[in-house]
Amino acid sequence: MFRPRFLLLSLGNPAPYYETLHSAGHFALNSAQKALRGSQLPFTYTDLGGKKCLASLTASSSSPSYIMIQSPTLMNVCGPWVAKAYREQLQMHNLKPSELSLVLVHDDLEEDFGSVKLRKWKASHRGHNGVKSVNASLKPAEFPGARWSRISIGIDRPEARDQQSVANYVLRRMTRYQKDVIDAKIGPRVIGCLRSLQDDWEEDFDKASSDP
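Below the sequence we write its predicted structure tokens.
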């Protein structure tokens, strides 16, 4: 029986930068777990990719399988860990790349704060060092049939566009208002993106099953 499975990996930074704008992907994943209202287990620490990280699993066998994991590494060098964690999940669950859709959840300087957008894997990284690191470490040719996507979380952008101003901005601690917006509004939008991916996947599966 066909059952969509998704591995959601959020990119961000560990402490002391966990609560910064650059870690908006982590907070979006926390909000998504809450939005699933009991069908998704709370985040707990687990060993994955050689590091301790926060992970959440689907609680019900009747719902789509969501594995939510927050990258525990520094944003700019997260690619090797993401690649290792993805391979481990495939092996752990005895799945082919075509059976576990990888979805990166990350912040986006080019979008208004609170916006949530589904992006194709090959869409521009827009200078995002975390996405660039993952692209350098995960080669689609090594994972036949893989379905990879990205969900971006808008965090606005500083007026000054020099490298130091941008770095200072993304490492700014989120305000209480910003945290509340993500907690209340972003999760349902992330789930909406996932359901869109699920619909496309099921449609492709139905077409393949009906082909002579």
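The beta strands are 5-10, 44-48, 51-56, 65-70, 101-108, 116-120, 148-154.
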